[in-house]
């Protein structure tokens, strides 16, 4: 990618950004309250997810400037209304900052005080110009290959050049396993910015969640089931087989045939098939194994296996939702029993589960609404005892969940599909981890002396 013509970041742009920050920090009333509440929410979320290595206060303020609201009015609009003397160009620039986004970037190249960055989550590239708001020591580390988490803002309404916005979080030059971990951390820290600069990728990911929901309901007949763990594991494997077959049929594959048979029928050479499979994320040895194997495509697919704690559970309840995704609970059946027996048993066990469900992030608002709809009276009575809030009604549920730290807006669930470049990265990272683990085991076994006698 050729660098755009050289241009320096206008001093007026930096001063304009600083004037917005001063305007917000000096404000009182509703704007000050909104900043305080927004920052508190950020700090709470980041503390729960162990965000370190960055100025969290500076980051929260910078995010509030571009995405904060007061009574549904954006902070940037409040600023422009309060400054009628702004020129049309300044107003356009301020409005363009609504496109500011968080990302996990890699430095591709440097050009004096500018840097070409690629957002690893979307593969989109940007020329970013430095300014005096960034520490020179940090900028000196931005050589090719350096990974960083930061925010980018347009340097002009046309966004030919972008600006660093807020603090930088430098991660170093990461191998694939550590990069995969960094992507996982980014998703936890900034769930609303997973595809912050690629709405088309975000839309596809949400569509995949809805598709999963529809497939689940088609197979199981409803959006919620409760089964013993071992039985659920078998059912999910059968479900995976059906979904896999549907996906293969959609792209013209006969799952009863091997890759080699399909290649022969289509007149595709082994080299062409290998190249196609590698593009799908398979490494060389895996490609060779698939091509030489007599297994059908269906047989070659890795089966779903639930974690041991779920497989061994007496009862596992599975909830699916087109926005909230999929949730597994091992004590939901017990919770329902306690709610239904509320007038016959001591409430201590029931209230303990109510408090547990309030704490656990996996018990999302959709599950709570199901509980209120189906077990309203005993559930509200338990909440009244736990929260010391008498006379609760179903209309109080949202307020209860917000105070419990639960977001009422779903973020992209784990079951969402990911772009192919990320899928490939995760596969290669796992292969590298497994290879390193195997090498360590091999070295360890060579260094051990066999015991005498019959001991192994």
Summarize the structure.
With 456 residues, this protein is of the alpha+beta class.
Overview of the structural elements:
- This protein has helices spanning 11-25, 29-48, 56-67, 75-82, 88-96, 136-140, 176-189, 199-220, 229-250, 259-266, 270-279, 284-292, 297-300, 308-311, 332-340, 347-359, 365-387, 397-403, 420-447, and strands at residues 69-70, 73-74, 101-111, 114-119, 124-129, 147-154, 162-172, 224-227, 316-321, 325-329.
- It is of the alpha+beta class and 456 residues long.
- Strand 4 (114-119) and strand 5 (124-129) form a beta hairpin.
- Helix 2 crosses helix 3.
SSE diagram, text form:
Blueprint: H1 11-25, H2 29-48, H3 56-67, E1 69-70, E2 73-74, H4 75-82, H5 88-96, E3 101-111, E4 114-119, E5 124-129, H6 136-140, E6 147-154, E7 162-172, H7 176-189, H8 199-220, E8 224-227, H9 229-250, H10 259-266, H11 270-279, H12 284-292, H13 297-300, H14 308-311, E9 316-321, E10 325-329, H15 332-340, H16 347-359, H17 365-387, H18 397-403, H19 420-447
Parallel strand pairs: 5-7
Antiparallel strand pairs: 1-2, 3-4, 3-6, 4-5, 6-7, 8-9, 9-10
* Helix fraction by DSSP (H/I, runs of at least 4): 40-55%
Task: Compute the average pLDDT.
Answer: 83
Q: How far is it from the N-terminal to the C-terminal residue, by CA?
A: 60 Å
Tally of DSSP β-strands: 10
Q: Residue ranges: pLDDT <50 for 5 or more in a row? A: 1-8, 280-285, 295-302, 448-456
With strands numbered from the N-terminus, the spatial order across the biggest sheet is 3-4-5-7-6
Helix-strand category: alpha+beta
Measured by DSSP, the beta-strand proportion falls in 5-15%
Rg from Cα: 27 Å
Output the helix-strand order.
Answer: HHHEEHHEEEHEEHHEHHHHHHEEHHHHH
What is the quaternary state of this protein?
A: single chain
Number of helices: 19
Biggest pleated sheet: 5 strands, mixed, barrel
Categorize the overall geometry: globular
């Amino acid at each position: 990618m050729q660098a755009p013509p050289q241009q320096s970041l206008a001093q007026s742009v930096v001063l304009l950004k600083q004037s917005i920050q001063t305007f917000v920090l000096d404000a009182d009333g509703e704007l000050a309250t909104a900043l305080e509440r927004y920052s508190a929410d950020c700090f709470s979320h980041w503390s729960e997810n162990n965000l370190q290595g960055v100025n969290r206060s500076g980051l929260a303020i910078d995010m509030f400037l571009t995405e904060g609201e007061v009574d549904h009015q954006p902070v940037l609009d409040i600023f422009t209304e309060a400054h009628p003397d702004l020129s049309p160009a300044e107003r356009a620039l301020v409005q363009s900052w609504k496109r500011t986004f968080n990302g996990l970037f890699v430095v591709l190249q440097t050009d004096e005080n500018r840097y070409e960055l690629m957002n690893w989550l979307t593969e989109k590239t940007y020329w970013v110009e430095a300014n005096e708001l960034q520490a020179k020591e940090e900028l000196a580390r931005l050589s090719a290959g350096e990974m960083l988490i930061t925010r980018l803002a347009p340097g002009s309404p046309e966004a030919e050049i972008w600006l660093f916005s807020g603090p930088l979080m430098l991660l170093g030059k990461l191998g694939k396993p550590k990069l995969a971990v960094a992507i996982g951390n980014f998703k936890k820290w900034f769930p609303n910015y997973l595809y912050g600069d690629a709405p088309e990728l975000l839309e596809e990911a949400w569509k995949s969640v809805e598709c999963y929901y529809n497939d689940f309901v088609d197979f199981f007949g409803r959006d919620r089931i409760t089964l013993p763990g071992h039985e659920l594991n078998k059912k999910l494997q059968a479900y995976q087989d059906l979904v896999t077959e549907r996906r293969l049929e959609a792209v013209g594959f006969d799952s009863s045939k091997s890759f080699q048979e399909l290649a022969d029928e289509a007149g595709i050479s082994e080299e062409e098939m290998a190249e196609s499979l590698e593009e799908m994320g398979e490494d060389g040895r895996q490609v060779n194994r698939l091509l030489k194997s007599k297994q059908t495509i269906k047989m070659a697919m890795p089966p779903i296996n639930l974690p041991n704690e779920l497989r061994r559970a007496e009862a596992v309840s599975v909830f699916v939702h087109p926005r909230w995704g999929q949730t597994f609970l091992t004590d939901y059946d017990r919770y329902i029993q306690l709610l239904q027996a509320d007038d016959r048993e001591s409430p201590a066990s029931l209230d303990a589960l109510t408090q547990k469900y309030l704490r656990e992030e996996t018990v999302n608002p959709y599950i709570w609404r199901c509980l209120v709809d189906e077990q309203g009276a005993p559930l509200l009575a338990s909440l009244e005892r736990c929260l010391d809030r008498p006379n609760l009604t179903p209309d109080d549920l949202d307020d209860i969940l917000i105070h419990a730290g639960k977001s009422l807006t779903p973020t992209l669930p784990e079951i969402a599909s990911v772009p192919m470049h990320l899928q490939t990265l995760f596969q290669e990272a796992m292969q590298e981890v497994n290879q390193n683990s195997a090498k360590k085991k091999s070295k360890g076994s060579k260094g051990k002396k066999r015991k005498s006698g019959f001991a192994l």
